[in-house]
Task: structure prediction
Amino acid sequence: MSLPKNPGLEPDPPVNPAVHQEHDPESPPPPDHFLSDPITSTAFPASSTASPSLPPENPVWTGWDVLQIAFLTIVTLIVLQLVLILGANRFVYRHSSFRVVSQKPILALLSEFLAYIGVAIYMIALVQGKYRVRFWQAIRWNWSAGAAPKLLGLGVLMVGLDLLGRFLPMPRSVPFDQFFARPTDAYLTAAFAITLGPLMEELFFRGFLYPVLARRMGVVLGVIFTALPFGLVHLVQYGYAWGAVLVIFLVGMVLTTIRAVTGSVAASFLAHVGYNATLMALTAVATDGFRHMEKAAVALF
Result:
């Protein structure tokens, strides 16, 4: 026996959740997509001047965070180098003056190595501790093993930019030459130049600085104003020679363009390694293993 239908007691029609979505104040809030996937988040929309064909830049950190990293790097380098020089002058080079000890390449390399390790730890703590996202995902490392040979090869081709030095006023000697005065110092410098050196430069300039500038200024200005400080930080190293700094600025333009087009810091890092490694290899061959630097035919950047 069936009951008669009562229109007043009929159940409400089913609700389509895709059309009708009301927030229940007692239900848990929706997941925070900004924290779980910062790369695709729209919390910070990319600049309208950026090319739609390029990966949008959406870093979780701010420009103030980038300035803090830069300030920490400078202060740490100065303090560590001073401490190491004083310690070496007191316990290792007792009969040498402070000036002589301060020019020891091994101390400069050691202070830079320790400072970079400390800054790298701070970078990771900032991203994963403050913003709760995975560091390598937020920095857009995006490692691609298949593209590695091409990127390294591109770095080799970038050495062609150094040919501009033949048409620019270049100094006969620069402070950086002291790192190649002895074969031992030269090999240590070369090892640093193809490992930790380019890694930290890419993490800061192309990893942290570029996406902040590109989000605010757009891709083109972001590339230019990332390459500019990249060149200027080498001013002291190359005795304020504007020709040498101009070449480094152009190298920075290429590296930042690679980062912008690929959306990967790993890509610009590999190209950077290829560039530095080629310069070091050419110099080592030309100088019989860094033993006759007067034969050097390439500029070291």
About this structure: Residues 63-295 form one domain. The chain has a mean pLDDT of 83.
